[in-house]
Specification:
Elements: E1 3-9, H1 14-23, E2 31-37, E3 43-49, H2 52-61, E4 68-74, E5 89-91, E6 94-102, H3 105-114, H4 126-137, H5 142-151, E7 155-163, E8 170-175, E9 180-184, E10 187-191, E11 203-206, E12 211-216, E13 219-224, E14 229-230, E15 235-236, H6 252-258, H7 260-269, E16 272-273, E17 278-279, H8 288-293, E18 296-301, H9 303-320, E19 324-328, H10 329-332, E20 343-349, H11 355-366, E21 370-375, H12 381-385, E22 388-391, H13 404-423, H14 429-451, H15 454-463, E23 468-473, H16 478-492, E24 495-500, E25 517-522, H17 528-540, E26 544-550, E27 563-566, H18 574-593
Parallel strand pairs: 18-19, 18-20, 20-21, 21-22, 23-24, 23-25, 25-26, 26-27
Antiparallel strand pairs: 1-4, 1-10, 2-3, 2-4, 5-6, 6-7, 7-8, 8-12, 9-10, 9-11, 11-15, 12-13, 13-14, 16-17
Bound molecules: 6-O-phosphono-alpha-D-glucopyranose (G6P).
């Protein structure tokens, strides 16, 4: 949701702000704007409906320059995408950009209108800047006006203020919306996410909820809303700027699909002790004795991360013989879940900022559960809230539709299952060794799967005009059917449903006819023959079967005209291999249909509002 960038330094910041915005465009892209204080000591604002490219065009004929400024890319919550609703918003000398939702904006607006203020936009954000002006008119300083404004707001915010009368200083604050500070040579940066400022610095301060920060080119100070000084020291992060670029690929999504073998290697590398055949998860902060205390595991997430949790349930229940519940963050937080100190709650998220997932973790904390997280972004909100972390080392994921984060999450959940299983004594050293070996061999099989994309291209061409798709899987591949359908919906806008193949006859079978492509995920093993029966049911009704089949010497499915054979791996890791062709299928269809793959309509990468 919305991306923010701020700069104060000794060079012209306009390119830095625009480049930063482009790197945050995945967070929202319905309008954008920039404000800078120029050499004339005046604030100039340029805003525009549409993507950042539209703003860039506008800036060609109406440029901004300056050594201090703020910028914003928007994902609309209050007020349609328009020039007037685009940020930055201004009132008197104050200019602001905001990410979040001000829940009491209607009351505040009414009050300010009574006092004679008038509003130029439909946004909740405009009340922030009007309030600041009101406080300032009461004789307060720049800083105190802002702090007193923040005290009157309910809801979530990451905000950055620019003030014409203080051309040397930005003031920013956060509450339940992400905001990071970057420290450079004679410069400070602000951003919603690390990739925005990665080309300039990797010294990052992760601001906390309630922090108010003043920054100038000489440095920064942080206080709480009640004026207490806060120590916030920068950490060095090991991402490099190239990781947040397309590196010759047409889209970030395609690049990220191809990065998956490496993402898996990086995720499991630190946890596997090959010589001693052990899994160690040092940041998880969970001893063997702690594991023995657990009587239930709850996995919570949203979107694609939720699908990773559904896979995780199959893995953990089987390996640990512990009950595992899986819930959506948005449902969990309101259903009064039953948790206690023997529950382990694991929040799974790429960004670590998803509002509903954070609220779910908070619920676990309130009910004294042991609260852990699997997260990709170091220092993100979830990483800081939880009392233990497993990092997926997938690197920055920019494409809105998640790919490498998903497969890395499955790998991390697998590591977690192995770790707990061994703490509980459910797995012998030899068995653990075999699991570890499968993990070590997986990246190579992923490469093989990736190199075999001709069939996918043929399917994409043949079915790019289909109105509906059905994805069928059983057992541990059922969540992959859900994920395959989600990928297609997200980026190609084709309606798709994922279904447990055994459930097909209870409803979706009515949809099947000659025009319906049905993607079937066929794993060898226990459910293999049942899946074959489901395929026959589809064929009997004229459905077009597209089969992903795990390699096996006596495969009974027989040659199908539309079949892609995948390398064999363990039952637990098959979801990772099966996910890859489904990502590629969605990608190829979207490209053929000419949709905006990396920034699909109406979606945002990081959903930091409810
Ligand atoms: C958004 C994104 C999805 C993502 C979901 C959860 O909907 O578009 O790709 O899976 O949020 O995000 P998280 O960062 O918590 O994994």
């Amino acid at each position: 949701m919305c991306g923010i960038v701020g700069y104060v330094g000794v060079s012209d910041g306009s390119t830095i702000l625009l480049e930063g915005l482009k790197r945050l465009e995945y967070r929202g892209y319905d309008s954008a704007g920039i404000a800078m204080i120029g050499a004339d000591q005046k604030v100039k604002i340029v805003r525009s409906r549409g993507k950042i490219a539209v703003l860039q065009e506008k800036l060609k004929s109406d440029p901004v320059f300056g050594k201090i400024g703020i910028a914003h890319t928007r994902w609309a919550t209050h007020g349609k995408p328009s020039d007037e609703n685009a940020h930055p918003h201004r009132s008197g000398p104050f200019v602001v950009v905001h990410n979040g939702i001000i829940e009491n904006y209607a009351d505040v607006k009414l009050q300010l209108e009574k006092e004679g203020f008038s509003f130029a936009s439909e946004t909740d954000t405009e009340v922030i800047v009007k309030l600041a002006e009101r406080e300032w008119r009461r004789g307060k300083s720049y800083y105190t006006s802002i702090v007193d404004t923040l005290r009157q707001l309910r809801g979530s915010y990451a905000v950055v203020f620019l003030n014409q009368e203080h051309p040397e200083e930005l003031i920013a604050a956060r509450k339940e919306s992400p905001l990071i500070l970057g420290v450079g040579e004679e410069a400070c940066y602000l951003a919603s996410d690390v990739p925005a400022i990665l080309p300039y610095t990797n010294a990052i301060v992760y601001l906390e909820d309630g922090d108010v920060v003043r920054l100038s080119r000489d440095g920064y100070t942080v206080e709480s809303l009640d004026g207490k000084r806060q120590e916030r020291t920068p950490v060095r992060i090991d991402w490099n700027p190239v990781m947040a670029e397309k590196a010759g690929y047409k889209h970030f999504m395609l690049k990220e699909i191809h990065e998956q073998p490496h993402a898996i290697i990086d995720t499991v590398r630190g946890a596997l002790d090959l010589n001693r055949r052990r899994v160690s998860l040092d940041d998880l902060n969970l001893t063997d004795a702690d594991v023995k205390q657990i009587d239930k595991i709850v996995l919570v997430a949203c979107g694609t991360s939720y699908h990773a949790c559904l896979v995780g349930k199959y893995i953990i229940e089987r390996l640990c013989r512990l009950p595992v519940e899986v819930d959506l963050g948005s449902e969990f937080r309101y259903r009064q879940p039953l948790l206690n100190h023997r529950t382990l709650l694991m929040a799974v998220s790429q960004s670590g900022e998803t509002a509903d997932t954070r609220a779910a973790l908070q619920e676990g904390m309130d009910q004294k559960a042991s609260c852990k997280t699997i997260v990709n972004v170091v220092g993100s909100s979830l990483a800081r809230m939880a009392d233990g972390v497993i990092y997926t080392h997938a690197g920055p994921e920019i494409g809105v539709a998640s790919t490498k984060a998903f497969t890395s999450q499955v790998a991390a959940l697998y590591l977690f299952g192995l770790y707990c299983s061994s703490a509980l004594g459910h797995i012998s050293q030899d068995q653990l060794g075999r699991h570890i070996q499968e993990l070590v061999e997986l990246p190579h099989k992923m490469e093989e799967t990736l190199s075999n994309s001709d069939t996918i291209m043929r399917w994409a061409k043949r079915y790019m005009h289909a109105q509906d798709f059905l994805y069928l899987g059983r057992g541990i591949l059922y969540p992959i059917a859900l994920e395959g359908a989600l990928k297609l919906k997200e980026i190609s806008y084709i309606h798709a449903e994922g279904y447990a193949a055994g459930e097909m006859k209870h409803g979706p079978i009515a949809l099947i006819d000659e025009s319906m492509p049905v993607v079937v995920l066929v794993q060898q093993g226990l459910l293999y023959e049942k899946m074959l029966s489901n395929i026959q049911e589809v064929k009997a009704r004229g459905g077009q079967v597209l089969a992903l089949v795990e390699e096996h010497p006596d495969d009974k499915l027989g040659a199908q005209d539309q079949q892609l054979v995948l390398p064999r791996t363990s039952e637990w890791l098959a979801p990772i291999l099966f996910a890859i062709p489904l990502q590629l299928l969605a990608y190829q269809i979207a490209v053929l249909r000419g949709t905006d793959v990396d920034q699909p309509r109406n979606l945002a990468k990081s959903v930091t509002v409810e």
